[in-house]
Structures are given as structure tokens and as C-alpha cells.
Amino acid sequence: MHPTLHWNLRTTAARRGIWKSITLRNLLAERGYHFSAAKMSSFWTGQFKYIKPADLAAFCQTLDCRLDELLTFHPAQSTPVEPAKPGTSPDLWTTARVTPER
Predict the structure, then answer these.
(1) CB 1: neighbour CB atoms within 10 A?
(2) Residue 77, SS3 per DSSP
(3) C-alpha distances in angstroms, 30 versus 34, 49, 61, 67, 75?
């Protein structure tokens, strides 16, 4: 399994009583952050290709949240390895290798 980042804008907004992207877009505009409807939609649905640090800061300031509320990191998990049989030495290459999910 590969490490992943999860975008939690909708959940973070909902915890603050914001249920629609237009509501958040208006709050952002009140604070001087202007996003087009298309860009706001991509952030709201999580379908954006990249996000600028300034955009992250705008969301954090407007929602009064921390960055780790908007983005959560899930590290890769290694594939479990069966323990070595008694009387044998483990294959260190096999036990140390992380197999990506296919």
C-alpha cells in the first residue's frame, strides 16, 4: 500500500456548520480570498491537481482549523511477513521489504 494524503475540506467545513461550497466561497471572499466557482468546486470535491500553500492558509484561516485537519497523511503499511521457523534464521531481505499494493 502506498502512502496517501486525504483531503478533508468538506468534513472540516461541516464540523463548523458549513454544508455548501458557496457558503465557504463567500466566507473566503469576505476575508479577501477569491476563488472562481470552478476552482472552489475542485477543492470542495477533492478533484484538484495541486494546491498552493496560500490556498491552504486561506482555508485554515477562514475555517479556523489546523493544516492536519484539512490534510491527513496515511503512511504505507508493510506486508506482514510470517515469522521464521524455529532453528532457522530469517531472510532479512524479505522481512525488510515493503511490497506496494497492486
Answers:
(1) 13
(2) coil
(3) 9, 26, 12, 21, 36
Rounded to a whole number of angstroms, the distance between the first and last alpha carbons of the chain is: 8
To the nearest whole number, what is the mean pLDDT of the chain? Answer: 84
pLDDT < 70 positions in the chain = 78-102
Q: Grid coordinates representing 8?
A: 478533508
CA dist 60 and 66 (Å) reads 6
The range of the structural domain enclosing residue 82 comes to 1-102
Q: What is the pLDDT of residue 26?
A: 98
CATH of the domain at 74: 1.10.260.40
Domain count, the chain: 1
CA dihedral 10, 13, 16, 20 (to 10 degrees): -80
Q: Strand (E) positions, the chain? A: 4-7, 71-74
